[in-house]
Design a protein that fits this description.
The complex is a heterodimer of chains A (229) and B (217). Chain A has 6 helices and 11 strands. Chain A has helices at residues 8-11, 33-42, 61-66, 82-89, 100-112, 175-181; strands spanning 20-23, 47-50, 70-75, 94-97, 116-119, 133-136, 139-145, 151-160, 165-166, 184-193, 212-215. In chain A, helix 5 (100-112) packs across helix 6 (175-181). The radius of gyration of chain A is 18 Å and the shape is globular. In chain B, helix 5 (195-201) links the parallel strand 14 (183-189) and strand 15. The chains are: A alpha/beta (229), B alpha/beta (217). At the A-B interface, helix 4, helix 5 and helix 6 of A face helix 3, strand 9 and helix 4 of B.
Chain lengths: 229, 217
């Protein structure tokens, strides 16, 4: 079966208004740049986006916010984006904030066939409101459910045409978890190779989780905090 | 009064050989600059790096290699990368020995608020709620009062809570306090700061017993 598509526009075929998308990345590190740009061009709207952050004003998911294509964001930290904060405080944008580990585990659970789990994170806080609380070994935990999403959009360093993926450095972050969790997973890679060219010992995401793959172009890889010694 | 660097320097004295440590954004990040040279401390960055190295040179900058504050960093011999679920597995399972966080407010029961000011500022909790729910040893680094001069060390939090009963120690520009069942126990004073000044700047229950030594580095 051929999973290779030619470009991002082809990869996002089937993403329609109102869908729930997972987008990999931490800040601007490891985000699916090509796929996001294609979504902006497509004009698809009323999206629910699950992503740790919301990009910055003019890059990453920030672009989808600027064009008002996002109905709801599910994130852990959104502090780098003034447009986001404006839309949120004005009520234009719905936001669900979750502890980062809970966000990660809800992705992992979705990809692992686990419907729910208990975590101590958020007990006693706003995050716990309306959620089941249980005590285990004298400590309180809240129940969190696996995410349900239509598409997962991830970015890897290298991938083969079967869909095996290798991530680079901290650009890994949520990408392998989301790759497992999408009903349909779209991977964009910096380098697309033939099966057998990646050492099976070092593959992070197995091809079975990936439905579409393409080689991205013109990676900007913008740095949020350029710090040097 | 302590500078931000001196707050970090004092917290660094709490580090022990073999510790895995997670440092939050702001003053906590500075603690890395004061790790004693005779001990090994491994820094965990929750975006997926254990063994965080110093900031890179211009030539070493790699957009794919950042810390949880989105700053460019480097690796060290023995460093390892992992996904976000593995990162928080380390945190929730209690393997991180020390967590240093900033805070907007702490109360005398050890509750912390640092993620939201309703109607004004919504940044989110990031990894803070996972860290405070699980870490055995949490030190807060912060200014004793806010810009309006109001105490940030309270009886009851006014802001939405991040975690309950988790803060063990607070180091501010004025002093070092342990959080115990009785409240904030004053342990050390910054040079030139009096007990009365700390009392005036602390809205929560403050316990002062015996002579309070001056912070040494």
């Amino acid at each position: 079966m051929n999973k290779v598509v030619q470009n991002a526009a082809e990869a996002i075929a089937g993403i329609t208004d109102g869908m729930t998308l997972m987008l990999g990345g931490f800040g601007l590190c490891g985000i699916p740049e090509n796929t996001i740009n294609a979504l902006v061009k497509s004009g698809v709207k009323n999206l629910t986006c699950i992503s740790n952050n919301a990009g910055v004003d003019d890059f990453g998911i920030g672009l989808l916010l600027q064009s008002k294509q996002v109905k709801k964001m599910i994130s852990s930290y959104v502090g780098e984006n003034a447009e986001f904060e404006r839309q949120l405080l004005s009520g234009e944008l719905e936001v669900e904030l979750l502890p980062q580990g809970t966000l990660a585990e809800r992705c992992r659970a979705a990809g692992a066939g686990i419907p729910a789990f208990f975590t101590p994170a958020g007990y006693g806080t706003e995050v716990a409101e309306g959620k089941e609380v249980r005590e285990f070994n004298g400590k309180q935990y809240i129940m969190e459910k696996a995410f349900e999403s239509d598409y997962a959009l991830v970015k890897a360093w290298k991938g083969d045409t079967d869909g095996n993926l290798i991530f680079k450095a901290t650009a890994r972050n949520f990408n392998p978890l989301m790759a497992m969790a999408g009903k349909i997973t779209i991977a964009e890679v910096e380098e697309l190779v033939q099966p057998g060219e990646l050492d099976p010992n070092f593959i992070h995401t197995s091809s079975i989780f990936v439905n579409r793959i393409f080689q991205g172009t013109d990676y900007e890889k913008r740095i949020e905090q350029r710090t040097t010694k | 009064m302590l500078t931000k660097e001196q707050i970090a320097q004092r917290i660094a004295k709490e580090l022990k050989d073999g510790y895995y440590v997670n440092l939050g954004i702001g003053i906590p990040t500075l603690v890395a600059n004061f790790v004693p040279s005779d001990i090994d401390v491994t820094l965990q960055s929750e975006n997926g790096l254990l063994g965080m190295g110093p900031f890179p040179s211009e030539e070493e900058i790699d957009a794919d290699l950042i810390n949880a504050g989105k700053q460019t960093v480097t690796t060290l011999p023995g460093s390892v990368f992992f996904d976000s679920a593995t990162s928080f597995a380390m945190i929730r399972s209690g393997r991180v020995d020390l967590t240093v966080l900033g805070a907007m407010e702490v109360n005398d029961k050890g509750d912390i608020a640092n993620w939201k000011i309703p109607g004004k500022m919504v940044k989110g909790m990031g990894g803070a709620m996972d860290l405070v729910a699980s870490a055995q040893n949490i030190i807060v680094a912060m200014q004793h009062t806010n810009r309006a001069g109001e105490s940030k060390l309270l009886k009851e939090l006014s802001l939405p809570v991040t975690g309950l009963g988790c803060v063990k120690k607070v180091v501010t520009n004025l002093c070092v306090m342990d959080v115990t069942e009785r409240g904030f126990e004053l342990k050390e004073l910054a040079l030139g700061v009096s007990v009365d000044e700390v009392k005036a700047a602390t809205a929560g229950t403050l316990i002062v017993e015996g002579d309070i030594p001056v912070i040494s580095f």
